[in-house]
Amino acid sequence: MHFIDTHCHLDFTEFKLDLEQQLAHAHALGVDYFVVPGITIKQSESLLAFSERYSQCRVAAGLHPYFIDQHTDEALHQLILFAQNNKHHLVAIGECGIDGTCPQLPWQQALFAEQIKLSNMLQLPLIVHHRQSHHLIAQTFKQTPPKFGGVIHAFSGSLQQAQYYIKQGFKLGVGGTISYERASKTRKVFSQVPLECLLLETDAPSMPLSGHQGKVNEPRRLLDVFEYLCQLRSEHPEQIARQLYLSSCTLFRI
Ligand SMILES: [Zn+2]
Q1: How far is the CA of 53 from the centre of ligand 1 (A)?
Q2: SUPFAM superfamilies per the record (predicted)?
Q3: Of 128, 170, 190, 227, which has the fewest beta carbons less than 10 angstroms from its beta carbon?
Q4: Confidence label for 89 from pLDDT (cuts 50, 70 and 90)
């Protein structure tokens, strides 16, 4: 079986010393490709060299709401220019979105809308971060509809919310959250939506699985996420793996 980790921050310092090993270890388990999101303009620019060095990594460019204080008008302008000039090296715009626990919500929303426009202009999908913000994301989608879909990273929410995103052309990112019993609502959603709407992701080095709390999450844990997902689904594991791989390739044109 083959897999794609559709969301992992492999350029973070946590992997500075052992990235080659991490990639090799994951690859031995069948993880062929890794999608590495952009989080600031500087870091998005640096991902070009990163993807040249690690050819199994595909990269995106975006302004993540966690770093809202760094995202000036100038940074947005630079992102637009950078993405236009390097469109063929990018698989998506993001990680962008709205985080209800971060400051400057009106500016977060404006930046998100601008990144939706950018993805529409470049015909690229979006990698969307959400946290206590489904209503604000829906509001932004209404004002600035995304045309090329994307993924709702680390989806958690109700079946109704899931169906709304699917209708907007989005996939739902399935990560380590489902390893926790407390995520029963999200687990149920992942068991109910069509298999074609799901993608696998680790969010490494963040979001360690149950039993690994406090540790650096690693891309090889994608297989664990897959096993947890298989427990929730009625399809055969091979069919699940094949569909998720196909959906990932199609969305990110890998
Ligand atoms: Zn992320």
Answers
A1: 21
A2: Metallo-dependent hydrolases (SSF51556)
A3: 227
A4: very high
User: Is 224 within any annotated ligand binding site?
Assistant: no
**Cα 61 to ligand 1 centre (Å):** 12
Rounded-to-integer distance, Cα 107 and Cα 90, Å: 25
Q: How far is the CA of 163 from the centre of ligand 1 (A)?
A: 22
* Length of the chain in terms of residues written: 254
Distance 239 CA to ligand 1 centre (A): 27
Q: Which residues of 44-62 are buried (b: 16+ CB within 10 A; e: fewer)?
A: beebeeebeebebbbbbbb
Task: Report whether 32 belongs to an annotated binding site.
Answer: no
Fold of 30-132: TIM Barrel (3.20.20)
Do the annotations mark residue 9 as ligand-binding?
A: yes
Distance 203 CA to ligand 1 centre (A): 5
203 annotated ligand binder: yes
- Where along the chain do its domains lie? 30-132, 149-214+238-254
In whole angstroms, what separates CA 254 from the centre of its chain? 15
Question: Pick from 28, 37, 39, 30: which is nearest to 4 by CA?
Answer: 30
Segment 150-179, tens digit of pLDDT = 999 999 999 999 999 999 999 999 999 999
